[in-house]
Design brief:
single chain, alpha+beta, 4-stranded antiparallel β-sheet, 6 helices, 37% helix, 24% strand
């Protein structure tokens, strides 16, 4: 699967000009890749385009134009691009009220490990979470996690054949299931598989 390289990025000047159109394209692209699992968990399934946009935004915000700084961003974000046998997602735990969010995050420790995908006819695949660093402490979990769902070749073949896909969370304090993801989401995710 494609990796983001220095050559695939725009310069800061070129990005400033292209940003409105590029941003609109990426937001439209993200729409079917964003999956609400219940009322408070969203999985944003990443791919080369979403991560390239994130890198471009970080370079713009930090005004980074030196090669070492650009390489640091590439090194930090490239691991979030799926590699053909998996899906990688940013998991967001969202509560509008700060007090409610604090209480919920205390009760939801380990939720990232109880998030799953299931190819029809196969066992659930639980997320491998936060491989870069631990995002949980003694009191609470983080509101953002990075998760990876590793699929077998048989699962990939079944998805390409057209079987259904379910997504869910089975944490003791948060239980939600999407028994069949929408067609647009399924199509976007299957396109990530080699």
């Amino acid at each position: 699967m494609p990796r983001i390289t220095r050559d695939s990025l725009m310069t800061l000047e070129a990005y400033a000009k292209a940003r409105p159109e590029f941003r609109a394209r990426v937001l439209a692209h993200k729409k079917p890749r964003s999956v609400a699992v219940g009322a408070h968990v969203t999985l944003l399934f990443e791919d080369e385009l979403t991560i390239r946009y994130q890198i471009q935004e970080m370079l713009r915000i930090e005004k980074t134009f030196e090669e070492a700084g650009i390489q640091d961003e590439l090194d930090a974000y490239n691991p979030l691009v799926p590699d053909g046998s998996n899906w990688k997602a940013t998991m967001l735990i969202e509560y509008d009220d700060p007090a409610e969010r604090k209480a919920a995050l205390a009760k939801l420790k380990g939720i990232e490990d109880r998030t799953w995908v299931q190819v029809e006819g196969c066992a659930r695949v639980y997320a491998i979470a936060d491989e870069d660093l631990d995002r949980e402490n003694e009191e609470k979990t983080s509101s953002v996690h990075f998760v990876r769902f590793e699929l077998t070749p048989e699962m990939v073949a079944a998805l390409k054949y057209g079987v259904g896909l379910a997504i869910g969370v089975d944490h003791p304090n948060y239980d939600a299931v999407i028994p069949a993801v929408e067609a647009a989401t399924r199509t976007a995710l299957v396109a990530d598989l080699a």
